[in-house]
Amino acid sequence: MAASSVLRLVQWKCDAAVVSANWPSPTVAVGSRIRFFPRRSQIGSSIRISNSGSPYWPSPPKSAAAAAVSSSPWLMLPPSFDEETEKMTAYNFYSIAQDKVVTIKKPMTLSDELLDDDAAVVGSSHGWLCLFNRSTTFDDLILYNPLTRRHIELPSVNIYNLQGNNIGFHSHHTQWVTRVVISSSTPDDQDCRALMNYNVGNRLAFCCPGHTSGYWTPIGETHLKLDDHLYGRNYEDFVYSPKQNLFYCVTAFGDFEAWDLRDPHSPTMTPVILSSDKNNYPRAASSEEELNLKRSCVSRKYLVIDEETDQLYHVRRFVKDTIRSFSMLYYNSPSDEVDYEFSNPYRTVGFDVHRVDLEKGELSYMDGGSLDGLAMFVGPNYSFALRASEYPELKPDSIYFTDVFSPPYWDNGIYGGHDVGIFNYRDRTVSSCYYPVDEVSIRRIVPSPVWFTPTTTQL
């Protein structure tokens, strides 16, 4: 066991100042849907709209050298709806730097047919949201930049083309797009690639957003054979390295792959062989109590990249339900029976972080509580790390996390979407980030919050 890795059974502490100022008002029922609505008094001065109707951007770039300007991440909150028409009116974000809610009106130029109010956010990377509109005939995927109000339609996922054969995306099982990541903040460039997870088995497919005529190309193995049994390959996470022009992927079985998608007609995969220390992988623990706690948890793997240094990290998250199993975390189909009748919400209790050394082929455990001053951001979004020294509002050696599970609007569950907070890797405690973390105050949040990186790009 790792000698200096100490995980206290998480000491839940709540930043009362943030929670009292920003915790949303009670839920408002809209038909069969339940959504959170921020209090108008909370938003107030945090909303600034220019004469053109576009959102106010603090300290806009003055020089052409700043082609893309970013601030610290925003937490995307549930949107606002008109109580009479039941139509979505605005996107809401919590700005860590300003400690305020920023509201951006939904543009009237996006028709309801193109972008349904119930479109699911299935991706957030490089300043763009990916919205999955399942209410349309073709199951549209749309890239949308809420700051510039630009949108780019991705190829439909109703059917995709594989070596000249049209193959139905849907079979007799309901299938989902679970995550979409783009390789740059300029998706209309010819070199940009979009990689997605789809199906209940988390398979991979990619497309070229900048190509006028495109389709999704499935890649990767669909199954893994173990002891004469076939299991879904299940790609858990993937990130893009702009310096190496590679997508790095990790599977549920701990396999690592590097994908070169520069030639869309000839995608190539290179297996990444990484050795690890059995004393801290797949679980690191400094005591038998900590090890037993982690064994009782469901774990979720992330690949986190620091794009400034091109350093890759393997992050394992441990989520604990003190009452029952975590089968509900892997909700895949509306036909699944999801039972929320238990007294305590599931919650994140810890993280293990390993530095990926591609040259040595090693996973090196980051012991001693240091993340080299990084603030990491994980959730349904693109997983990334920032230097906290460059963003004074961020906490160094911390992991900002959002829920891995997003409950549907129409269910009547007690919890879901609530597992949001900041994990201090040094002292192994969890503090609040906009939403409270104490059990008494935790409530269901629909849709689940995701991290968004606000960027403006010259057009």
TrEMBL record:
<dbReference type="Pfam" id="PF03478">
    <property type="entry name" value="Beta-prop_KIB1-4"/>
</dbReference>
<feature type="domain" description="KIB1-4 beta-propeller">
    <location>
        <begin position="93"/>
        <end position="424"/>
    </location>
</feature>
<dbReference type="InterPro" id="IPR050942">
    <property type="entry name" value="F-box_BR-signaling"/>
</dbReference>
<dbReference type="InterPro" id="IPR011047">
    <property type="entry name" value="Quinoprotein_ADH-like_sf"/>
</dbReference>
<dbReference type="InterPro" id="IPR005174">
    <property type="entry name" value="KIB1-4_b-propeller"/>
</dbReference>
<protein>
    <recommendedName>
        <fullName>KIB1-4 beta-propeller domain-containing protein</fullName>
    </recommendedName>
</protein>
